[in-house]
Amino acid sequence: MSELLHSDESVERPVIRLSPEEASQIQATFMRQVYGWMGGALALTGGIALLISSTPELVELVAGQRLVFFGLLLLELFVVGYISSRAAQMSASTMTGAFIAYAALNGITLSVIFLVFTADSIASTLFVAAGTFAVMSLYGYFTGTDLSRWGNVLMMALVGLIIASVVNMFWLNSLLYTITSCVGVLLFVALIAYDTQKLKALAFTGLGDADATHKASLLGALTLYLDFINLFLFLLRFFGRRR
């Protein structure tokens, strides 16, 4: 229920008071929206990747032209950066379109994994990634442990992983490749739990404002989508069988 509480004598601010049951229901509804958008984005990404990998002309365009491929990667970075930095200023419909566009772009660039790895190993790795994601996301949602203290460590590890991965693109050291692969799997396993718990608090953003809730669910879906994709790609380093 809503009440007006006085923070001082001259300013009145509306405060929404919720029972534990009402708060849990809001969080559950919000997370269903998050998982729904995430699942839809993953389905779109996978569908486009399969379509392109099975069309020789498109494979040649994406994988055969380095300029095109790296241009798509840069466009992906721009889109995800734009969504993250401009979410507050964007309309709900624009943000939805940008999120769908990002998932589609990712499907185009990820189509190249079908040229490197066998379809069976990709499918089995996807199954492992989905199971791991489900377990860690459920842990993050239901645990009573405060995972916010992981935040700084996870962010530093992520920065270190990115730097090491970029360095190894030029160095091509097999030991560093193995280390970054192990760290990548462990990092994104932890991030799934951390981000899921963080999203429970995001459920109350713009409470009563449909557009604000919609945008918050898209941001949450994007966060977990990225966690899942990265976990899958790092697991593919271990379970993927090359053609």
From TrEMBL:
UniProt-listed InterPro entries: Bax_inhibitor_1-related
Keyword set, alphabetical order: Membrane, Transmembrane, Transmembrane helix
TM helices/strands, residue ranges: 34-55, 67-85, 97-116, 122-141, 153-171, 177-195, 216-239
GO cellular component: plasma membrane
Membrane topology annotation: Multi-pass membrane protein
Predominant location: membrane
Subcellular location per the Swiss-Prot or TrEMBL entry: Membrane
Similarity comment: Belongs to the BI1 family.
Protein name: Modulator of FtsH protease
Organism encoding this protein: Hymenobacter actinosclerus
